[in-house]
Specification:
Structural class: mainly beta
Radius of gyration: 34 Å
Helix content: under 10%
Shape: globular
Distance between the termini: 44 Å
Largest sheet: 17 strands, antiparallel
Number of strands: 40
Amino acid sequence: MKHKVVQFARLAAVLCLLLWNPSVQAQKGITVKGTVVDADGLPVIGAGVTLKGTTTGVAADTDGSFSISVPSETAVLEIVALGYTTAEIQVGKQRNITVVLQDDSQTIEATVVVAYGTQKKATVTGALTSIDNKALIKAPVADVTNVLAGQMPGVATVQETGQPGEDYAKIYIRGAGSLSDSNAAPLILVDGVERPLNTVDPNEIESLSILKDAASTAVFGVRGANGVIIVTTKRGDAGKPKISVSSITGVQVPMSYITQCSSYDFARYYNVYQWNDGKTDPGLYFTPEAIEAYRTGSDPIMFPNTQWHELMFRKAFVQTKNNINISGGSDKVRYFVSMGYMFQNGLLKQIPDVTYDNNYSYNRYNYRANLDFKLTETTDMKFNISGVIGNTREPLDSDRGNIWMLTMLWAHPTASPGIVNGMPVTVVSYDALPDGLTKWNGWEYYYWSGYRNKYKTTLDMDMTITQRLDFLTQGLSVSLKGSYDTDMAITKKRQGSGGYHQTIEYQSWADNSGLSMTDPAFDRTYLPVISGSEPTLSYSESTDDDKSWYIEARVDYNRKFAGKHQVTGLLLYNQSRDYYPSKYSWLPYGYVGWVARATYGYKDKYLVDVSAGYNGSENFAPGKTRYGLFPSASIGWVISEENFMKKVPWVDFLKLRASIGKVGNDQGNSVRFMYMDGVWNEAGSYYFGTGKSDGVPRYELGTPGNPGVTWETALKSNIGLDFDLFNYRLHFSGDIFQEHRTGILISPKSLPSIIATSLPNMNLGIVDNKGFEMELGWKDHVGNFTYDISANVTYARNKIVFEDEVEPEFEYQRETGG
């Protein structure tokens, strides 16, 4: 919720009146009582209730209640609160009133977060969408990235796994404009600093803005081609402490499992498969006796019909999220402090005889303290400290990824009956199965293989000092910002051999009696055979630590001349360093850049916005490719401010906007310093003379350098239309966009393989992306019942124009053009 200047003045007048004018309480007349609540039914503390046209008023109590005397039933009450639309109610015969205030985030006076600042929503000329805290905390998901699905036009998310602690979603803004997923990720800023989004507690977030077009992202230069997500965390307001507690506990249920065929069908299909291959050896087939046993289920131990997902997976697993935060302060110091805890359990069942828990799980503690200090009448300071303490547990399958999951999918329903006498059976007797049949079972690489605990602790700090220079010229200010982030990760592995297992034999098979299963003398007594011994888990440990810092210096100008000329300006310098000792101990990643932006608005009717980002990266060669300039321009026309539109009472707001600009993307540069020739130490050596045991290391030329390598460049254009109708109840926002991206880094494909070395990536790829997006919503209330219905749609289609593709043998293999 954003502060409105008019609302603040009214509320200040009410508070002053309460403090200095005793006659307010003494006025005689009709007494009207009531309660002021928001759209969710929560009390709006401190809401000002005034008699319209007078200075008579009261403030709502901590439960939102008020009592006021009015002279007659024709009196009109005006209810004002920061961040809400003003409400007016005629008293009439009412003596007890419930007032529902609407969030002002949809009105033209609302402000939204843009690149390096905030701006009145009505004057924004770029393409952006934002949501507030209420929308973020409604969805009962563990990761805030999954909340974004379907919430805003132009934003798509893909969740690739439900593993606890790893269930974050990939985010795409207006589709994928490059040739790979790794090149399509947006830039994410939390309180102005690049940080991951998936570990932020939604209860800490005030608002989240998605910047989409070049007018919104050009200031980020080489980082802005894929869109930008700006997260603003909560801050305290002056007043009594406000405590908020939330707790959500639920269950997660897999949407579906892969259902395997029955053992009976599997055996018959396997025999058909062998027959079609011309196999004649009877030992390669399931016997008729075995097939009949699978059909009747007469012996579920030796001839099982195992559905592995039912045997190994739970039907539901628990998730809980808890948060407590407190905010408040005075005119000198304000604070917001938050603590959160989240737990996710996994879907694996506990194996009875395994003495440790190797199911998936995730525990996470979040903490945050945002402090605001008014150092002087013109100097403000913000200090934020936050962090995460997390622990992820997962099965350890010999460090081969999730191969245990694959073996479960490959597992035969005939391989094992599951758990017998409290111990899993890895395979039934080999005599029950055909020769040559791989005995895949769901316990492979999982039973007694061990587990891994990954502990991660992060600490993020940033501070901003702002000095207003109105004594030089009104609206001028300077600020300095600095941040330092660090995280430490410890991985503890307890690994077993996985060789401890059990098979099941018939006694006659164990005795090598040679009797047929149909022979009455055949002994069907089960004989468990245990191989190996309960393994002792080995222990190993590894650590990893990363750190980064960011500095920013800026000059801002914001002033309105003659009540109709609104001018803003921004000049900013920033620099960052990221250190990854375990990966690149010798040299950090780094960026440096300048930002310039200017806007002009005439009567909030005709709007112009020009901006540019000038960025550099040490990954590119010194000279013309190391730095790049990324300009943009946008215009807007608020048609509803025209005199001829003011005669249309049902049109509250109507704006047409357009933008064009150039932005960059350097995420394709996965190999550092590609402008330099690659040299490495080969395993072989040169030996000189005879009888030499120590050779001279052999160095070979690796990939040649590409001195012209640089970032991708995207030329983006956008046309948009926004309107609000019927007293802001009907809202629409729509955009048509187009992007032409060139210089995408790819490995040359059309050169002959006779070249005896790997070639460097080159800026050859070209991709076009275009589409549209729109959002339509209706918000209203009937009495105390408030409803909000909205829908959005996004269409984005990309086309590969060039990727140095070799002419395919068949047309359907062609990637270019599709």
